[in-house]
Queue: 2 jobs
Job 1
Amino acid sequence: MTSADWLWASPEASTAIASRDLSTILRAFRRINGMSQVALAELLGYDKSYVSMLETGRRAINDVGTRRHIAARLSLPAHVLGVTDVDDAEYRAMLQFGDSTVRLAEIARQAGRAVEAVNELWPLVARLEARAAEGQMERDSLALLARARVALGVSLGTVLPEERLSSAARWTGLAVEIAARLDDSNFYAHALRMHGNELRKAGHPGAAVARLDHSLQLSNDPADRGSALAFICRAAGELGDAERFDTALSDYRNLLDKNTGSGLLFQPFTLREIALRGLMSTGRIMRACSLVHRQAGRPPAPQWYIIERVTTGEILVESRNVEGAVDAFTDAIDSAERHRLPHQIQRAVRASVKAGLVDVADAGRAALARNQSRLSAR
């Protein structure tokens, strides 16, 4: 059975699924996954000529069992192929437990199991998206859809490679559109915060700052404000805006001094890594070098340990500690492969190439290939 990731990796996939047309879905599935008709036929357990007829619309399938089989092999919710109705008992049960699904997926992501989070979230999002497309969304369902969109986007932003991170920003952006209409300022701030960070990761730090500033204005809870400031530090660093970075970092540090750290972003470990990367990004490498050996507690999650290892490796390269840099990058690559975090491997490879660490870069590329192979085999 294939992974659910393909469903949300591109607008083409979403459009194909929304059409509920088997021919369109099969063709899109093959294009997105780079599969031949022979490979698709093997996945479905059919003859290639039969798959060809399905793709061209020369053969229609009316049998419920066959449609259910195809849906299962493509990791599609059965209603997309007309097997069930969105108003059935299954849909109502999914709504009943929807909040729990989102919470459990968030716990999985924060524990370093982001692929698991995606695969938990996508059936919920698929059913809610289908309901929304038919104009049958009551307020509670709409709020659940927004929460699920944010969680899905952030989880995708953790597991997708860099060249596909715009998909994560797209899903968090769709959540912001709903959040703006829900009269819930706390959730609106959360959606803006997550969207801002996914925009930054997708290469749009300027747009990210605008969303993050808005989130900061709406946030009252110290952990929420700290999270917004952490992301602002990231974006300001990538923009090379030292003044904005220093102001946000100072506000973050003062807030943390007065409040107990909580969450992934409002922690001493996170503060130190953000300071390291921001100082490096704004050209103050000597200050970064003086900070790199200072410890600041335990990482709040596996991905933050990996993020810190890459950043530390980059700074050690600048301080001409090549052996230490090799250890840091190698540790990051091994951990990122174990937790299936391809864009962190890509960060380590890019930094290794820049530093001329050919063997480390080659090891990273091999890890990326293994990660993609495992994803394709699902």
Job 2
Amino acid sequence: MDRDEVDRALARLGAEHEAVETSLLALQDHAGRRLLEGAALSGVTKERWAAADAAISRLWTYFDAYSGALAAAREIRERRRWPTREELAELTERLRGPGVVIAGAGVEGAGLAERFSLAELVARMNELYAGSLDVVVAADAVWSALPARIDLLGAELHRTRALAHSVGVRPGEHPSGDDLEEITAELAALRAEVIADPLHFWVAVAGSSAPGGGRPDTRRYDRAARALDDVRREVEAVLTVRQDAEARLIALRDVLSRADRTLAEARTARIEVLAKIAASEVPAVSGPPTALQEQLAAAAEYRRRSQWHRLSPLLDALEDRAEEELRRARESLTAVTAPLAVRAELRGRLDAYKAKAARHGMAQDPLLVERYDTARRMLWSAPCDLRAAEQAVVRYQRATAETLVPRQQPLPDHHRPQGPGEEDA
């Protein structure tokens, strides 16, 4: 190397020395490293920190050797402005050759002494620094992210548990109470594991060039947070039940009362149908839903005792069953009164055709009078045979149509009305 090459090499190595020193001091002062030094570690973190801590110690040993070699080279260069050939040869050997010997630095089966050139020593220090920084940054990232979030979730858990106890959601009495105990135990265990073994909760990201190269693993925390959200919604539902219980119980009593009245009306109608309609199958009408009344009484007792967690599911089930009971009662009434509806329809049809015959002056036609009286007698007698009465109405209807046809003479085209005739009304 000539003088200029030596000066350039010394400048480059000096800049690298400064950069390495700055990095080592920053690593030494890193909050994550201080936490790792003082923590009771376990698992993956204990193993990796032991290796990283040893690597940091070797880093300082390498750096001291690097500093000494660089200082010695600078001392030779500063002896005179124009170094001699011998001095240039010595500087070339010091700056490029494997002249840095580090005693006692061998690891894992290597020799007890290592020889490096200054460039190799810089590369080695960079390698050890990157590995050590990865451990420190990853542990610090997990400690910065998870314990604080766990503590916030724990505070929310405490508030939810207090609220749950106030409405009777307790372990052994309500599933959500058991869930709260499981979440509490999970958060305590998770926090202890995160503090002792943060690297267990670190997910490496392939291809990342950033120190640490990954992100905290929050899956267990996320599961606990979702479970707490589910419990909170359940507790809020129970609170809603406490606020709305009286109104919902009143509404339930009203629905069941309407169902009872409808069934009573159906039973009365059935008696009337059996008395007034002959040859008709009338469905039986069930009695009042005693089981629902008993459950309604149990719901009222839960409310009186403030057992909201028991009242909540019972009210939901009762509301569905009460609406179903009212629908069933209405269908029963409709089925029972169907024959009366048929009789009413036949009566209306008979009177409509009589009115039609009267409009055409045929009300006193002997055949029509006879068939009308026959049909009317069947429809207004008790019990009424619906099948026979319907046939009588059909016969009167046909007789009316046949009687009216000869009376309706066709008009000339210029006298025909534009709309339908009266007989079509």
